[in-house]
Design the sequence.
């Protein structure tokens, strides 16, 4: 449901997200006020990835609040950002419907959508109106490979993440004698998981790994017993996973319960590898690794934002800081454009050199809508926490590989 908010963000009210401040009926403040800049946020706050969508909405709200508290868009007379909150309900057709509603409401830009299929369809719909669409989360490289001039993605796609993940796995394996030689890939059956798995299967032989099998699963999947039995029979050294949070967690728990011995569980874009997972299931998560979006642990601003999110009762998952950083990129582009006109804003985004600081990126440089300055990180779960093990310049721990066997 489309809604408009002015924010004092709390964990309770950001999920509801549908109360219009205007209904209070207060008299207008005297004096000329610049028109608010409407931004459409589309996230799956209901449906099978609702938690991820709620986290993205939280990050977006925090960024809007910060921009407005800092004086709004100063080059536009202090114009405030006004968020229109849409719920894709984890469905492609609903995401497109939200684009249409928000266009009628006069949005200057969109941010979303977490799921790649929704992001692909929603940004295509926005292209009809030449409205900028910023992808906060959505890994498929199809998002930026369609020649659409209105689409921008700050984070890396699955191509970059796979390349970095394969390189890091090869280096780690070589550093410990090169004993791991085989892998099984498990992925969700949509565009995100299928595309990632295809790339993994093609790249693993380059570091001396045999791909014993590629196993796909539906969303949602409620039982992974048969998949775990199949993995046990194949006896790979490494299991690689690319799926959404619920299935990621369930597969990891099933392999742990069945005590399937592996040198490592190494996901690329594992949707469930986050603080919630490692804190709720520390024994399951211990020594699991993931190549994914992560904040820069050496950034003071990132650590301050993390403390702020946690003080509000939420966890600092990648959806939060990617939505936050993407909203700040939009605000920076509005400031440089000095206008919310779609052509000027698109031009400002395309020429952006924005430095997120909270992410381990260089200055932003868009080529065909993809930020060339973005990169993933490789993390590992340790005793209910998450450490970064690569790239070296942001790493704060050394990897544990191979992981200890079950007894």
Sequence:
């Amino acid at each position: 449901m489309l809604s408009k908010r002015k924010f004092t963000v709390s964990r309770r009210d950001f999920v509801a997200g549908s109360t219009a401040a205007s209904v209070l009926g207060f008299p207008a403040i005297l004096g000329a006020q610049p028109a608010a800049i409407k931004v459409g946020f589309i996230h799956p706050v209901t449906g099978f990835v609702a938690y991820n969508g709620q986290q993205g909405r939280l990050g977006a709200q925090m960024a809007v609040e910060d921009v407005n508290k800092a004086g709004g868009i100063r080059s536009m007379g202090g114009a405030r950002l006004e968020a229109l909150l849409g719920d894709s309900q984890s469905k492609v057709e609903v995401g497109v419907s939200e684009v249409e509603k928000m266009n009628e409401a006069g949005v200057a830009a969109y941010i979303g959508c977490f799921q790649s299929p929704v992001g692909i369809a929603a940004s295509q719909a926005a292209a009809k109106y030449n409205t900028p669409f910023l992808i906060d989360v959505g890994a498929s490289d199809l998002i930026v490979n369609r020649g659409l001039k209105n689409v921008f993605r700050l984070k890396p796609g699955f191509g970059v993440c796979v390349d970095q993940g394969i390189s890091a796995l090869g280096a780690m394996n070589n550093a410990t004698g090169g004993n791991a030689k085989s892998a099984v890939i498990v992925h969700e059956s949509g565009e995100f998981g299928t595309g990632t798995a295809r790339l993994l299967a093609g790249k693993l032989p380059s570091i001396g790994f045999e791909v014993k099998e590629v196993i796909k699963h539906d969303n949602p999947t409620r039982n992974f017993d048969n998949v775990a039995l199949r993995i046990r029979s194949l006896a790979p050294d490494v299991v690689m996973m690319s799926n959404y949070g619920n299935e990621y967690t369930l597969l990891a728990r099933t392999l742990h319960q069945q005590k399937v011995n592996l040198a490592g569980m190494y996901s690329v874009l594992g949707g469930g590898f986050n603080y919630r997972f490692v804190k709720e299931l520390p024994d399951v998560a211990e020594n699991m690794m993931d190549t994914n979006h992560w904040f820069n642990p050496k950034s003071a601003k990132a650590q301050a934002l993390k403390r702020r999110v946690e003080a509000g009762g939420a966890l600092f998952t990648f959806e939060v800081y990617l939505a936050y950083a993407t909203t700040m990129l939009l605000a920076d582009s509005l400031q440089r454009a000095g206008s919310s006109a779609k052509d000027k804003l698109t031009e400002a985004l395309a020429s952006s050199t924005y430095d997120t600081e909270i992410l381990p990126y260089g200055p932003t440089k868009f080529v065909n809508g993809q930020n060339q300055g973005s990169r993933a990180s490789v993390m590992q779960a340790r005793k209910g926490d998450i450490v970064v093990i690569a790239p070296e310049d942001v790493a704060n721990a050394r990897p544990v590989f191979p992981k200890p066997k079950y007894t």
The chain has a mean pLDDT of 93. The chain has two domains: 3-156+298-371, 159-292+377-390.
